[in-house]
């Protein structure tokens, strides 16, 4: 039994604990999202709607957030693929690779960006580190000023690991989708026709 499991019987979480941490997460996300440069995000959004397919690649929880973004971009009507899925084709010139890595050094993500660059694809990246290898490969970079997951003593966030980066990444990608949709006259009902029906 793990130490956490052993302690579980003695832990008495109460409503005040949850309320305090809801406020913590809400306030950290709001503060950090407010520091994201909207012009950087606008440049990235314009990359998404250029001709070509969109591919997304990320590891761990960042990768899960990009999967959610891929779904919304598919609803928007774009051709979107998730790197690593069995039906994902080869990326090619004119396509866009959308990537995320808090550190900007995640080996699999950087390798995907290098491969995409060699193929002539464009790269749009989310990271905390403007001096990272990933940022250096990107045609559009959005800096999310959150703590990196290995920065356990950070004054930026009281949350564990890369939680704040991943939370703000979700908020920013949702804002991208909403902004793209705002510039169309497409009704929600039309977007819904693209929603999965084999669930």
UniProtKB/TrEMBL annotation:
One GO molecular function term of this record is:
carbohydrate derivative binding
Q: Which domain of life is it from?
A: Bacteria
Keywords on record: Isomerase
Q: Matching Pfam families, A to Z?
A: SIS
User: InterPro entries per the record?
Assistant: PHI/rmpB, SIS_dom, SIS_dom_sf
PANTHER family noted in UniProt:
3-HEXULOSE-6-PHOSPHATE ISOMERASE
Listed name of the protein: 6-phospho 3-hexuloisomerase
Look up and give the organism this protein is from: Mycobacterium aquaticum
| Phylogenetic placement of the source organism | Bacteria, Bacillati, Actinomycetota, Actinomycetes, Mycobacteriales
